[in-house]
From TrEMBL:
Residue span(s) of domain HPt: 3-74
GO BP annotations listed: phosphorelay signal transduction system
Record protein name field: Hpt domain-containing protein
SUPFAM superfamilies: Histidine-containing phosphotransfer domain, HPT domain (SSF47226)
Keywords carried by this UniProt record: Two-component regulatory system
Source organism: Aliivibrio finisterrensis
One Gene Ontology MF term: protein kinase activity
Length: 97
């Protein structure tokens, strides 16, 4: 489990960077794809807050509600950072009990 969590965090941080770049460039196709992928992997590890905002952004992109997608995507890096820190703390505690 610890290795899975570490891999998830590394990959997800890369995705957050891609999402931030897509937001700045208003690349809604990339924004939709990356938030879909991030939302799925976040949910798999129980990262509900990150999954929820990712799904909201994805849905806004699908519905061509681009201003709303940009608003939400601006919030994503902070939510992601907090959730990754919480996972790293939990991972450091171990999973034996």
């Amino acid at each position: 489990m610890p290795e899975l969590i570490q891999f998830y965090i590394i990959e997800s941080k890369e995705r957050v960077g891609i999402i931030s770049k897509a937001e700045k460039e208003k690349d809604f196709q990339t924004l939709e794809f990356e938030t879909h992928t991030l939302g799925s992997s976040a949910l798999t590890l129980g990262n509900i807050a990150l999954s929820a905002i990712s799904r909201e952004i994805e849905l806004h992109c699908m519905q061509q509600q681009f201003d709303e997608a940009l608003e939400k995507s601006a919030l994503l890096p902070d939510i992601a950072s907090k959730s990754f820190s919480a996972l790293e703390t939990r991972n450091a505690q171990g999973f034996t009990k």
